[in-house]
Design a protein that fits this description.
Blueprint: H1 3-20, E1 23-25, E2 36-40, H2 47-54, E3 60-65, H3 74-80, E4 84-86, H4 93-104, E5 108-111, H5 129-137, E6 141-148, E7 158-162, H6 178-205
Parallel strand pairs: 1-7, 2-5, 2-6, 3-4, 3-5
Antiparallel strand pairs: 6-7
């Protein structure tokens, strides 16, 4: 168990509930006793924190861009919260190795498949990282969506939706079909996330 993360949840949960008026759907879809790759769309810097205080698992490791680990003090905070760096736009073998190690330990691996934040809030095309890791580790993927009308700011309604797990065999591919396999698996993952986001948008419009 990560004591720092536990304390962080205790402190931040009531604050975030007051500031962001967020609701949570589908918490029962996140397995409690096995590793999964948790994939969400990315619309704000606050997304990782929102998910960290929502996902009630002892260890949740989010992949974060390398640049964040160069900021003094902040580097320590996100490291204590079990985040680890990834070099975007490159084949970061160390990040992949770290991801596979997280899964072997039975923890939750958190990834934002798009690789960066969406400027207009709409889901974008997924990079291949999440699909590759899921295929290598043979674990299910749990899609999720952060939904908000406009920018995520204090005193705005934010809807967090966790979808049903995508079975590993729906995104599995062979080494011989790696190129097509990565593309198809990435489309399946981002397609599920987009469906959750669109459903959330419709509810926000009511």
């Amino acid at each position: 168990m990560n004591i720092f993360l536990t304390v962080l949840r205790i402190i931040l949960y009531p604050i975030y509930r007051i500031l962001f008026w967020y609701s949570i759907e589908g918490k029962e879809n996140l397995p409690k006793d096995r590793s999964v790759v948790f994939c969400s769309n990315h619309i704000s810097l606050l997304d990782p924190v929102l998910w960290l205080i929502t996902i009630r698992r002892p260890r949740v490791h989010f992949m974060a861009k390398e640049e964040l680990f160069k900021i003094p003090i902040f580097k320590n905070l996100i490291t204590w919260a079990d985040a680890f760096p990834v070099r975007r736009g490159k084949g970061d073998t160390s990040a992949i190795s770290e991801s596979l190690d997280v899964i072997k330990k039975g923890h939750v691996l958190g990834i934002f498949p798009e690789g960066t934040r969406s400027k207009d809030g709409r889901p974008m095309r997924a990079k291949s990282g999440a699909a590759y890791i899921a295929n290598e580790s043979h674990v299910d993927i749990v899609p999720a969506a952060v939904v908000c009308k406009g920018k995520v700011r204090p005193f705005k309604r934010v809807r967090l939706i966790i979808g049903e797990p995508i079975p590993y065999d729906k995104v599995a591919f062979t080494k011989e079909d790696r190129r097509n396999g990565l593309r198809n698996a990435s489309n399946v993952i981002m397609g599920s996330i987009t469906e959750l986001w669109e459903a959330g948008q419709q509810k926000c419009a009511k």
